[in-house]
Design a protein that fits this description.
- The termini are far apart.
- By secondary structure, the chain is mostly helical.
Length: 110
């Protein structure tokens, strides 16, 4: 399954309404599929996830959604993948999200 296919299924459950978290889910998934458009789920490694967030998101976007909403949305997507595509992704991706919750907001302030 590709990241694009999985993200489309995830977004079916989180259709953008007026809820800030659902809008953030849609924005986050759009950014992720733009960064890794045709990649398989197994290619979403901790190193690629870190590059997506800590480099690409910081340098290439207007920081929308907000950093903590981005991370929350990614955590939700990874959790959904754990349930719906078990064993496909490296569990280290969850550690990357936890670490960047601490460092990303401060890095953007600087």
């Amino acid at each position: 399954m590709t990241i694009r296919e999985a993200s489309a299924r995830f977004l079916e459950l989180h259709k953008p309404k007026s809820s800030p978290s659902n809008i953030a889910h849609a924005q986050t998934i759009q950014l992720l599929t733009g960064y890794m458009p045709d990649n398989e789920l197994g290619e979403l490694t901790p190193a690629r996830l870190r590059d997506f967030i800590a480099r690409w998101y910081v340098e290439e976007t207007a920081h929308q959604p907000e950093p903590l909403l981005l991370l929350e949305s990614l955590r939700g997507f990874l959790g959904w993948l754990d349930t719906n595509a078990p064993g496909v992704m490296d569990r280290g991706c969850h550690s990357v999200i936890a670490e960047l919750e601490e460092t990303l907001p401060r890095a953007l302030e600087i």
